[in-house]
Protein: DUF1878 domain-containing protein
Amino acid sequence: MDELKNDDTIHFHLQLLSKLIDIKQYPFIKLIIEHNITFQEYNNLFLLLDKLNEQYESQKEEGFLDFTSLLVHFGGMLTEKLDPNDTIFALKREGYFPSLMGEFIKIIERK
Structure:
């Protein structure tokens, strides 16, 4: 029972701390905290992004111009806890995978 209380307290404290984070400076970290993303989900996200980034670079070298399939794959593999568009914009603002996120944003804004 004490563990449950501790989990609730930790969760509450994290929620308070997340309100102190400047959303403009750390929007991705804020998403992670607010949506209770686990360590495993976080790792899975970056494994997915590494794979997609490699595919993006490879396709770009081959002359591809449309990367919609990579965006669809990202959205389909992303944890249900996160909104794909919000995640992409937050990742871009924090400087993660800038070329890939830039492509994703172009696709999103075209629709």
